[in-house]
Structures are given as structure tokens and as C-alpha cells.
Amino acid sequence: MNQQYYDVLINGGRAIPGSSLTRDPNDPAPYERPPEYVNIHEASEWIFSQLINEDNYEQLIQTLLDDIPVMDIAQVLLFKGFTEGKWTVDLMMLLAEPTAYMILALAERAGVDPVIFRGEDEDDLQDEIFFGTKLTREKVEALQKISASDIPLPFVDQKEKAKLESLPTAEDMELKPTSLLQAPEEEVQQ
């Protein structure tokens, strides 16, 4: 039997418990080192600067147009930051709400009506699970209200505020929701 197949079958694709203790201590994984950010405000500034980066901004708006929920995007961004050693698990949990607000603010700026969480349109609202914790009805309603209000982001400095004001809308970028069922676009020969 193939050893790799056997390992996946036995471990379910997960690491063997205690395997991190057998790694070379001189070469720890990024999340095993001291984090880059230990302050929620500094981490929020870094996240915001990453979100308004030209390449990331266009991908974010396209993702929102494709009805990917804001909370899913925030979860992916925060977990990626954790695995890269940007912050601890505790700070990751504290960044969940500010990150969602940042994504909502950028969606509003781009003229996109975002989906907040999976199953938002269903009649009976169940508690949303986010990083293993329940997102209560009150928190979900507060997240939905943020797109209607003009709450300023407290960690945005003048330079980033100017960059934020210059960001294009979804129409300016000519972005449209994509579908896996649509015919591929033909490339124009020049």
C-alpha cells in the first residue's frame, strides 16, 4: 500500500499529535515564533493597508460581487495572517469584527451590496459559526447596519484616507459577478 495514502487514511490528512515537538527548534513555523503584531490597532492598520492594495482591492471587490460572504473573507484573511505569524490566535479573534467592518466599508465604497454570512437570505436565521464561536442575531444585525452608516475607521491616517478616496468602484473597474455556467470570454486579438 502507498505510504502517503496510508498516512492520509490513518491521520485524516492532519498532523500527527506532538509532531511540532519533534521539529528543529532553530527553524520554527511562522506561527510558533513571536507574532509580528501584538496590538489590535497596529494589526488593523496592516489589514486595512493590505485590503486597499491595488491588486488585493480588485480581488476583494470581485469576491464580494460573486456573493462570497464577508465573514468568510474575514476568516480566511485572519487565519492566513495567523499562519504567517502576523498575530496570535487571541488577537485573530479580536480582529474578526474590525476586519468585517473594513470589508463592509470597502464594499460600500465600491457600490457592492455584500452578503454578510452564508444563509443570510434564509427565513429562519440560525446562529452563524465564525472561528468556532456563534455570531448572535444582534451581532449580525449590527454588521448589516454598518453599511448604512458613515462610521469612520479610527485607524486610517490621512495618507490611507486619500488612497481610500481614490479607490475605484466596481463599475469603474468594469467588474461583474461571474458564473461558472457562463461562456468563456473571447480574447481580443491586437
Task: Describe, in plain words, how this protein is organized in 3D.
The protein contains 7 helices and 2 strands. With 190 residues, it is mainly α. The chain has a domain at 35-165. Helix 3 crosses helix 5 (89-110) and helix 4 crosses helix 5 (89-110). The longest helix has 22 residues, at 89-110. It is globular, with a radius of gyration of 20 Å. The model has no long low-confidence stretch (mean pLDDT 76).
Helices and strands, with pairings:
Blueprint: H1 3-11, H2 40-51, H3 54-65, H4 70-83, H5 89-110, E1 128-130, E2 133-135, H6 137-146, H7 158-165
Antiparallel strand pairs: 1-2
Helix pairs in contact: 2-5, 3-5, 4-5
Q: Strand count, sense and closure of the main sheet?
A: 2 strands, antiparallel
Order of helices and strands: HHHHHEEHH
Low-confidence stretches: none
Helix content, binned percent: 40-55%
Report the strand count: 2
Main sheet: strand order: 1-2
What Rg is obtained from the alpha carbons, in whole angstroms? 20 Å
Strand content range: under 5%
Derived structural class: mainly alpha
SS summary, helix count: 7
Taking the alpha carbons of the first and last residues, their distance comes to: 53 Å
Put the structure in a nutshell.
The chain is mainly alpha-helical and about 190 residues long.
Spell out the key features of this protein.
2 strands; mainly alpha; two-stranded antiparallel sheet; 3% strand; globular
